[in-house]
Structure formats: C-alpha cells, structure tokens
Amino acid sequence: MKGRIRQCPVDHLYTLSETCPQCGHPTVTPHPARYSPQDRLGSYRRMAR
C-alpha cells in the first residue's frame, strides 16, 4: 500500500485499500494524471475528449 487515498467507483467510498471494504470491487485513484509541458501524447488525449 502506498498510502494514497482510493475511491470505489460503485458506491463512492474513500479508502486506502485496493478493494472496497463494503462491496469488494477494485478501487481506483481519484487523482488526475500529472501535467507535463513536454507531454508528447497530450494533444491526442485532448482530441479524444
């Protein structure tokens, strides 16, 4: 465990574990990806949105 907060996408519960303690689904990190001015693929990611 890295100590970063995680969120269950099903019931929106915040936890530090890899799985949700209530429903058992895998959790995801709610933080956005880091921004880099040298991002080579950023233009493609913005076009996909």
Structure in words:
- The chain has 49 residues and is largely without helices or strands.
- It has a domain of 31 residues.
- A two-stranded antiparallel ribbon has the order 1-2.
- A hairpin with a 6-residue loop joins β1 and β2.
- It is elongated.
- 8% of the residues are buried.
Average pLDDT metric: 87
The total beta strand count reads 2
Instruction: Write out the strand line-up for the largest beta sheet, numbering strands in chain order.
Output: 1-2
* Unreliable segments of 5+ consecutive residues: none
Through-space gap between termini? 31 Å
Query: How do the helices and strands follow one another from N- to C-terminus?
Result: EEH
Q: Level of helix content? A: 10-25%
Which structural class fits the helix and strand makeup? little secondary structure
Subunit arrangement of the protein: single chain
List the helices and strands and how they pair.
Blueprint: E1 6-7, E2 14-15, H1 42-48
Antiparallel strand pairs: 1-2
Write a concise keyword list for the protein shown above.
49 residues, little secondary structure, two-stranded antiparallel ribbon, 1 helix, 2 strands, 14% helix, elongated, ribosome biogenesis, rRNA processing
